[in-house]
């Protein structure tokens, strides 16, 4: 289990809980706007934290923290993730998993085994735009399967989309239709990442950000398709 970052306490990453946030390296998508780009290719080994050190911290914070968020990168790429989660749950923490939905078999297994208490799944774009936004469209069937898993299981979950400049209200409505009836869909305001990138990507990063009113307008139209549509980041 590789860990390259730890936020020791957060009140915003796990709904209703004060939580630590753990970051794992590596991802199978390449979203140009990612704020964690430095860990996408499994870089940052020199900053790696030992599992023992993280577990010791969590043990000391028992009774003060309620949960642990496992984020990335894409955490489901970690071969020892299930064992790590078991060790954390033995400390009586709730687990929230952040995922892009590309590994439905792991998601299904974790839910069946009671290893996750909350799942946040990122919907990056309409399926026809995944290549444009994420640089990869090879996982679309997996993503569809993960959507079905969350919609048909009892584990609390949310779908969420960062409303990047290339996406429109029509795109978001198309995406909401794919998760029709979902308990919660979150629209996140796009923020320009303060990260070095190549010139082509830099031009995309600096595109006009959608206004808060546009987000609100879009959320209002989505509301009829899902249980609840929230906006974050404005």
- Distance from N terminus to C terminus (CA atoms, Å) equals 35 Å
- Residue-averaged pLDDT: 92
Biggest sheet architecture: 8 strands, mixed
Number of helices: 8
Radius of gyration, taken over Cα atoms and rounded to an integer in Å: 17 Å
Instruction: Specify the CATH architecture of the domain at 5-165.
Output: Alpha-Beta Barrel
Q: In percent, how much strand structure appears in the residues?
A: 15-25%
Structural class by secondary-structure content:
alpha/beta
CATH topology of the domain at 5-165: TIM Barrel
Strands in their spatial order, largest beta sheet? 1-2-3-4-5-6-7-8
Question: What is the count of β-strands?
Answer: 8
Helical fraction: 25-40%
Instruction: Give the CATH H-level superfamily of the domain at 5-165.
Output: Aldolase class I
Shape: globular
Low-pLDDT regions:
none
Order of secondary-structure elements: EEHEHEHEHHEHEHHE
CATH class of the domain at 5-165: Alpha Beta
């Amino acid at each position: 289990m590789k860990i390259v970052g730890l936020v020791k306490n957060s009140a915003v990453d796990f709904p209703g809980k004060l939580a630590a946030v753990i970051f794992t390296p590596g991802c199978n998508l390449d979203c140009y706007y990612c704020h964690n780009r430095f860990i996408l290719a499994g870089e940052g080994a020199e900053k790696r934290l030992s599992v023992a050190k993280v577990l010791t911290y969590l043990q000391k914070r028992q009774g003060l923290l309620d949960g642990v968020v496992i984020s990335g990168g894409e955490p489901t790429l970690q071969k020892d993730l299930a064992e790590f989660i078991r060790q954390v749950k033995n400390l009586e923490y709730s687990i929230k998993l952040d995922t892009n939905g590309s590994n439905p078999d792991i998601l299904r297994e974790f839910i069946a085994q009671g290893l996750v208490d909350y799942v946040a799944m990122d919907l990056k774009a309409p399926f026809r735009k995944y290549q444009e936004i994420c640089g990869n469209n090879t996982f679309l069937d997996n993503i569809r399967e993960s959507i079905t898993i969350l919609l048909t299981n009892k584990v609390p979950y949310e779908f969420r989309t960062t409303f990047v400049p290339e996406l429109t209200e029509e795109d978001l409505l198309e995406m909401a239709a794919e998760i029709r009836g979902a308990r919660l869909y979150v629209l996140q305001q796009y923020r320009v990442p303060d990260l070095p990138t190549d010139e082509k990507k830099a031009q995309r990063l600096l595109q006009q950000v959608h206004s808060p009113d546009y987000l609100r307008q879009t959320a209002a139209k989505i509301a009829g398709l899902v249980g609840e549509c929230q906006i974050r980041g404005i």
